[in-house]
Each structure stands twice: as C-alpha cells, then as structure tokens.
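Memo to structure team: turn this sequence into structure tokens by end of day. - J.P.
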Amino acid sequence: MRRRGMALAVTAAGSALAAAGLANTLRNLGRLRSPEPADAPWWPRFPGDSRPQHRVSVLVPMRDEELRARDCLEALGRQRMDEVIVLDDDSSDGTRDLAQDILGHDPRFTLLTEQGDPPPGWLGKPRACQVLADAADGDVLVFVDADVVLAPGAIVRAVRMLDRHDLAIVCPYPRQRTAGPLGRLVQPLLQ
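Reply from structure team:
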C-alpha cells in the first residue's frame, strides 16, 4: 500500500511538471515572431513611416578563431549594415590576419585589437563585448559569434522585427548544423 501511494505521488508530481512545461511552451508560442522575407524592402517598411533609418553595428568578438571564422566573416560581408567591428582579443593564431584579409577592403569594416588579460572583475568575452559596444556608432547592436554563419538578409529581418514589434532586444534562434545523428540529438539539449 505504501509503494502504491508513493507511485501515485510521483506520477502526480510528474504529471504536474509536464502540464507546467506544456503551459509554458504554449505561452512562449504566443510570443514567437517570424521575420519578414529577406527580399522585402529595407527602410521605410510601411507607407508614411517617417521613423529614421537605424544605424546597425555588427560586433564580432574573436579569440583564436582562425579555423572557424572564415564563413562567418564572408557572410557578414554580404549583409546590409552600416559597420562591422571585429575585436581580436589577444589571439595566438592567425585570427587577426584572416579578418583583415576577408574584410579589410570593405569600408564598413573595423578591426580592433585587445591585448593582455581583462581588467579585474571581468571575464574575456564579456569584456570584449563591452569594448565592441563602446566602439560602435549604431543605435542597433548585433553581436555575432565567430562560428555563426548568417543567412542572406538575416540582419535586415532581425532589425525589422525589432522595430515592427517595438522590441528592445531580439535573440534569433539559429539552425544548428550537426555532423550526424548524435549531434542532432544532443545539440538541442544544450540550448
């Protein structure tokens, strides 16, 4: 009898957790926003829209990313934005040279270099992001990791979504590329 009571309690608790998870998922579905098509006009989006055009700064912190950054930087070169600022955060490989080779001809591109350890109380990546934000001229800041490859028009669509829904922040969920079935199983669990 005691085991049966324990089994019922565990089943009830599990059912309650599952119901709470379902309720949270349904609530979040109502908050999801879909970006506009990539070929939609840039600005203004709506007839009579007199809001000023945003200045968009794309900010890329990098440290020892020589083997992963090429696709990211090439994709950024094809995006519509006002500036790209890459911070080479004391890399010991060819990250800086790679960034300079790929985007050095682009007038929207700026390469910054940070050397040494971050100040006390800072970790490397948050400090790199702060340095990038301080250097940016844009009123919209887009942070991109060096191993991310943006689809054509991704920045335009994200900024439109930000503006259209009067949002303060947009965090797109990327499509994960994986090498096999195990990766496809494990990668979503890491998010």
